[in-house]
């Protein structure tokens, strides 16, 4: 993702997913604060799996770009000996991240279709895996992210660590609105920071004083370099200030959005938004309270899950 367009497109993806989750978590909590159960993803009125399908489509396009369009001669491997050239290592690293998101969305659909009793936990585990993969891909990136670009990526790693931590915490604290709120807001921040990074790094007029775009001799990619230690330190400090200001802005945005949506939805009832949450409640109640036996069939347990699945409003349809 070493250019303006790649950063803006990937940033918009995270921004839309984050806003979608943030809106739905706040709405769900405003409607039912006492019975709130966080969901790993949300259905729409048009298609239950639109969010997950959109994720798979975006990842497929990104994989095609990284593995075919961007490599030299559209070949990720060296045609002579089948090895992976050094300039193409970054493309493969980006592809690993996108493939992890694709796997997450695919298995989230499969787990929901099969009505797995632990689909919530496994889906959040996969969510955490995507953030861990993203963090690892940035932290151990082949590209030499030094200077201002390295500082942007370092702060992005901080956001990914927070998203990873909240995803793992969400597995054990399903009824915590604050964990879901923070995770969704951080995903929004990741998207905004990704877009902001692309614009600031690949727009020459926006570069810090005494910094300039240069072509890397090995990879052929454009990188930002500064003329001296003082200008480099100044550029990194400006990046830190930008991040600090955006943290304040995100806090104001998150709390303001909560207040607005709480004012709109407080006391209202929206059955569609609660369908998946009610599934979780039904399963929990079944596990705790219901054990039925068939006297005519040697006291074997009824297939309660099968009956419940037939009663649930959603089927495995797109």
What does this protein structure show overall?
The protein has one domain. The two termini are 31 Å apart. By secondary structure, it is mainly alpha-helical. Strand 3 and strand 4 form a beta hairpin. Helices cover 64% and strands 4% of the residues. About 9% of the residues have low confidence. The strands form two sheets. It has a two-stranded antiparallel ribbon. A two-stranded antiparallel sheet has the order 3-4. The protein has nine helices and four strands; from the N terminus they run ααααααββααββα.
Helix and strand layout, with pairings?
Layout: H1 4-31, H2 50-69, H3 89-113, H4 119-139, H5 147-172, H6 177-201, E1 211-215, E2 222-226, H7 229-265, H8 275-289, E3 293-294, E4 300-301, H9 304-311
Antiparallel strand pairs: 1-2, 3-4
Write a concise keyword list for the protein shown above.
membrane, 318 residues, 9 helices, transmembrane helix, DUF716, mainly alpha
Helix content: 55-70%
Main sheet: strands, sense, barrel: 2 strands, antiparallel
> Which series of helices and strands comes N to C?
HHHHHHEEHHEEH
Strand content: under 5%
Q: How many individual helices?
A: 9
Work out the count of structural domains.
Answer: 1
Number of strands: 4
Strand arrangement within the widest β-sheet reads 1-2
User: Given the helix and strand composition, which structural class is it?
Assistant: mainly alpha
Which parts are unreliable, with pLDDT below 50 for 5 consecutive residues or more?
A: 287-314
Give Rg in angstroms: 23 Å
**Cα distance spanning the termini:** 31 Å
| Average residue pLDDT | 84
* Oligomerization category of the chains in this entry: single chain
Transmembrane segments: 6-23, 49-69, 89-110, 122-140, 152-173, 185-203, 243-262
Keywords: Membrane, Transmembrane, Transmembrane helix
Family: Belongs to the TMEM45 family.
Membrane topology: Multi-pass membrane protein
